[in-house]
Amino acid sequence: MEIEILGFKGRVKDINETLSMLEDDGIVQLMDARAVAGREHVLHATAHAIKAFERGENIANDIGLEICLRTAATRQISKALKMVGLREGPMEICAVLIDSDKLDMLSRMFKRDDTVLEPDTEYLKKLYKLTWDEIELVGVTGALMERTTLLILES
């Protein structure tokens, strides 16, 4: 299984149209890059999503949506989409590709820029209601990875 986590900048004109152009080849999940704490966070969430499907403990019926849930560290789909989902207009995008060859298409749709994956501590602290104790103890990325892991215990 090949997993790629990539950053892009661009304008989303129509969410449904954008997502439908990326169907039919592996898994492609697009998220708000500002809501992720780097590649490690997204890779951790993606691994948990895949394992949840393998164990039959998935929350969502779609692996892409499961990746969103795990990235946002919540069991509520509407909350996850509000936190990490695409919006119409200019965006920084985190793309997760699993066994997909849609990189060329994504590169035509958006401008490749992996710097968007660098965590914005202040934004993430507010979005996820992180405490300074959590951030000082394990950092933003570590705190969000821990929350993803704790979703398993809430089952």
UniProtKB/TrEMBL annotation:
InterPro entries: CGI121/TPRKB (IPR013926), CGI121/TPRKB_sf (IPR036504). SUPFAM superfamilies: PF0523-like. Belongs to the CGI121/TPRKB family. NCBIfam families: PRK14886.1-1. This is Kinase binding protein CGI-121.
